[in-house]
Amino acid sequence: MELPSRYEIIGNSLAIQWPDGREDFWDGPFLRKHSPSADQAGEIDIFGRIRGGASKDENFEDIIIKDFHLIGNYALRLVFSDGHSTGIYSWEYLQSLRSGD
After folding, report:
1. Which of 11, 34, 36, 72 has the fewest CB atoms within 10 Å, i.e. the most exposed one?
2. Phi/psi zone of residue 42: left (φ > 0), alpha (ψ -120 to 50 degrees), beta?
3. How many domains, in total, are found in the chain?
4. Does residue 86 belong to any structural domain of this protein?
């Protein structure tokens, strides 16, 4: 996995530029809805069932990306306007969110 060349918040979008020149942009509501945190996605119990997580119908359209923190060399932790900040967005996970790939 290659590390991004650059990443920043532009308006209410996370922008990432990859070493191959490709650029990705994800808006705040989309990233909040797709947070990989247990609060959002739930957790798998010992029987393989997903427990918890937020409703898939929850509306995040007014959510803003407030900040981010680099986690090692592998991910970003995003901070949202609703206080959510437990999702760790790995570079690999972000690439999996690309539409059309």
Report:
1. 72
2. left
3. 1
4. yes
| Predicted structure pTM score | 0.81
Is residue 3 one of the residues assigned to a domain?
no
4 in any annotated domain? no
For residue 41, count CB atoms less than 10 angstroms from its CB and return exposed for 0-12, middle for 13-18, buried for 19 or more: middle
Give the CATH number, domain containing residue 40.
3.30.2020
Residue with tokens 């942009």: 25
Q: Tokens 């059309």 map to which residue?
A: 100
In degrees and rounded to multiples of 5, residue 94 shows phi and psi of -60, -40
Q: Which of 69, 62, 6 lies closest to 32 in space, CA to CA?
A: 62
Rg (CA), the chain: 14
pLDDT tens figures, 28-52: 999 999 998 856 655 566 777 665 5
